[in-house]
User: Fold this.
Amino acid sequence: MKKKGKRGAYFVHPSSQVKYIAMTIIPALIMSVFSIFLLFKSGENLMINEKLKLAQETASLHQTLKKLTNPDLGIELEDKIEVMKRELYILQHTLEMKHYKDLVDWINTKVLLLTILPIILMCVGILALLYSHRIAGPLYRLEKHLIMLSEGKKTPPFHFRKYDEFKEVGEAFEKLRMKMEEKGYLK
Assistant:
């Protein structure tokens, strides 16, 4: 036997519930896609600016390295220049690795955003389904009881679950059912 107040099925009036769910998910989807688009664009612009900055920094390093490769310098100065060249190469490599790490981080962020979006939309859809059942479920039960009353049949007392909507309609229906039963209209 089904427990009193428990849901039997979540889709009791599919056409209205699907519309309600769609009207909940579509705005969330549009806002999410727009937000992600803006994030992607700003991230791409940031990465382009970082790449340009890296190119400028490494270009100046290349120019400095070219100037330092003069064959007419003394041995002592050439040793110092070689040390500076190695340090400049290390600096250049460090800058390139930082840019690569930033690029990988940005790609991971995009993947995370694109993974989270469907999960959030599924959660919104499930919540919309549950809430739509608080509306469609009572209306569905009310319709069944009204059909029975219109046929002159006795119906059990009509109650809504704790979180159902339209409780006042259910109370009004229950008063009508009791009056009809008192007057002997139901068999």
